[in-house]
C-alpha cells in the first residue's frame, strides 16, 4: 500500500472521528431543545465528501507524484485538518455536521470564528483542492470543487437562516 493511499485512509478515519463527535453533539443539542434544518442537502454532502476520497484513490493510480506540487498540497491538507479541528474545538457542543441549532445560545466568536464567519468551509475548500493534488489528482479536485460550490451556497444559507432565527447576537 503506498503512502498516498494511507493518507486518504487517514483522512477517511478523520471523517469517522468527526461523525462520532457530531453524533454526540447532536444528542446534546436535541436534549437542549435543538432544532434541525437543512435536511435536504445533507445526503448530497455525504455523497460528495465520500466521493472525494474515492476519487483521490482512483485517480492516484493514473497520475504521477510531482514532489513540488505534492509536498505543498500535503502541507495544505495538514493545515486544513488543523483548522477544521480548531473550528470543532471552538464551537464545542454546538459543532455538528448537520444543521442543529439550540435556541437561545449565543453566536460563537472565539477561535477562528473571531476572524471568519465560516472558517470550517475554508478548511473544506482547501482540503477539497489540496488532497487530490497531493498526487496530481486534478480531475477530482476540479469536480469536487465545482460540485461543492453550489452545495456550500445552500449549506451556508441554511445555517445562516437557522442561526439568525435561534441564536442571541
Summary keywords:
single chain, 169 residues, mainly alpha, 69% helix, Four Helix Bundle (Hemerythrin (Met), subunit A), membrane, Isoprenylcysteine carboxyl methyltransferase family protein, elongated, transmembrane helix
Fold and architecture overview:
With 169 residues, the protein is mostly helical. The protein has a single domain, classed as Four Helix Bundle (Hemerythrin (Met), subunit A) (Up-down Bundle). Helices cover 69% and strands 4% of the residues. The protein contains 5 helices and 2 strands; from the N terminus they run αβααβαα. A two-stranded antiparallel ribbon has the order 1-2. α2 packs parallel to α4 (119-133). The longest helix is centred in the N-terminal third of the chain and has 29 residues, at 3-31.
List the helices and strands and how they pair.
Blueprint: H1 3-31, E1 35-37, H2 42-60, H3 67-91, E2 99-101, H4 119-133, H5 138-166
Give the CA-CA distance, first to last residue: 50 Å
Please identify the oligomeric state: single chain
Order of helices and strands: HEHHEHH
Number of E-state strands: 2
Structural class: mainly alpha
Total count of helical runs of at least 4 residues: 5
**CATH fold-level topology:** Four Helix Bundle (Hemerythrin (Met), subunit A)
Give helix % range: 55-70%
